[in-house]
Amino acid sequence: MVAAKSPNISRELSIRAQVAFAVRCARRVVHLFRLPSGHSQLAKCCKALGSAVRFAEAFAAGESIDLDELAQAEERAASAVAAVAEMDPPNSQSECTVKSVYAALCAAKIGAEAKNGKVSAKLAERIAESVGTARDSAAAADGNVERHASYDWEKLREMDLGRFPDFGEAIDPGDKGPLGPLFQDFSRGGRSSTRPTTGGAEESRMTPSTKARADQLAEIDDLRKQIKAERKQLQAERAEFDAATQALQEQLEGQKSELEEKQSSAEQRSAELAARQQEVNAREQQFAQRQAELEAARAEFDAATQVLQEQLEGQKSELEQQQTSAERRAAELAERQQEVNAREQQFAQRQAELQATRAEFDAATRALQEQLEEQKAELEQQQTSAERRAAELAARQQEVNAREQQFARRQAELEAERADFDAAMQSLQEQLDAQKSELGQQQTSVERRVAELAELAKRQQELNAREQQFARRQAELEAELDKQEQELANSRLQLEAEKDETHAAFDWLQKERREFFEQRLGWSPESLRP
């Protein structure tokens, strides 16, 4: 496994410096984290990794940290590690990425939980192990991390923020902190500012082209940094978009389930209402049948009453003929007979008073029968028959009264049930109206959510288009950079060749000059020596 060149980092850096080193390693590879596009934990895992990096940066910078929130962040990061471990087929780059982030968070958590700003030797060793895991996992995820991690390690040593196992001074591990950008520019010799020089005319001839090349390289570096920044922004926006899409999807599923439950409840209420309606209809039919039976019994009673009335009329006529000798009782009998006739005329309207009227008539008849029993033996027999008929009539009247009372009670029960049914119907109708209104509102909300999802899908397409555009631009810039670097290398080779030719020409001129003095003038440099 590739590792930064810092074998003794656990003994050379303070605790906060180690965490700063680890979190910068993790930040260099966190954008490489991947899960399948349809994975249910994608948004939560991206958010968990971002939260873990922020907590580790806060500890390195000496900021106060809520231990409960830190523990929750650790649980979420562990869930991300488990989600990556369950991928099929496995993704080693994503696995190394989450391990690096999780190790940096663990190192920060151990330090944050230490009391009075001091850690034991055992805990310090655990922090160092976590930092080493973060470094090695990041280097395994991206081989380019090695040089940048080495640069951070050397820079932290030079800053001398403290000694192990002390916490040491706080340091901002971000791009704007003293450690600088996460990715240093090593394309022009790293941090070295010295350049090889050449003498005389050669340097004056290569200065303009070299300056132009340097400007072009600087411009390309700026474009490359801009592309990296925009790529990070796109990744953040994509993570935010995925989280929002997942949240909307879960909310839509919840609303759909709630709508289905309410629809099922409404259908059940409708079925219960239909059953109640059928029961009421059956009771109404029973009530109509019972009413018809009572009407038939009343008609039968009226017919029997008419027959008895006719019989009484015949008996009265016979009594008037036989009681001619009883003049003193005749007036009383006639008065009572008139009273009976009046009550009989009101009999149809006053059925409830029929029994009392018939009892008075029977009493009067018995009194007259006792007074006339010696004179009217035949009348006694007829009176006995009339009493028997009257008793039968009274029994029939009681039966009719009982049936009328039963009918009245049944009618009252039915009216009470109908009132309850009407109230239940009204309540159910109000509930159905309210549920319909609520269903309409929820349908509108669902339609609005669907429109938002469509807008988010459109935005995702725009983001994909921008990523493709940036990828094409980056490829073009890299191709142009390679071309310019090749041209620069060719220019350097050409300059070196010209330099060699110039030196060769200069040496030849020196040689010619020396030979000229030796041959023409008999002079040589040795002649000047004493």
Number of strands: 0
Shape: rod-shaped
The span between the termini is 70 Å
* SSE run: HHHHHHHHHHH
How much β-strand is present in the residues? under 5%
Largest sheet composition: none
**Overall mean confidence score, pLDDT:** 77
- The helix-and-strand class reads mainly alpha
Helical element count? Answer: 11
Low-confidence stretches: 1-8, 188-207, 523-530
Q: How would you describe what is shown here?
A:
This protein is mainly alpha-helical and 530 residues long. Among the domains are: 1-181; 278-434, no CATH class. It has helices at 9-12, 15-29, 42-60, 67-85, 92-112, 121-141, 145-159, 200-322, 327-345, 354-371, 377-520. Helix 2 (15-29) packs antiparallel against helix 3 and helix 10 runs antiparallel to helix 11. The two termini are 70 Å apart. 18% of the residues are buried. Mean pLDDT is 77; it is low at 1-8, 188-207 and 523-530.
List the helices and strands and how they pair.
Blueprint: H1 9-12, H2 15-29, H3 42-60, H4 67-85, H5 92-112, H6 121-141, H7 145-159, H8 200-322, H9 327-345, H10 354-371, H11 377-520
Helix pairs in contact: 2-3, 2-5, 2-6, 2-7, 3-4, 3-5, 3-8, 4-5, 5-6, 8-11, 9-10, 10-11
Could you list some keywords that capture this structure?
530 residues; mainly alpha
Structure summary:
The chain has helices at residues 9-12, 15-29, 42-60, 67-85, 92-112, 121-141, 145-159, 200-322, 327-345, 354-371, 377-520.
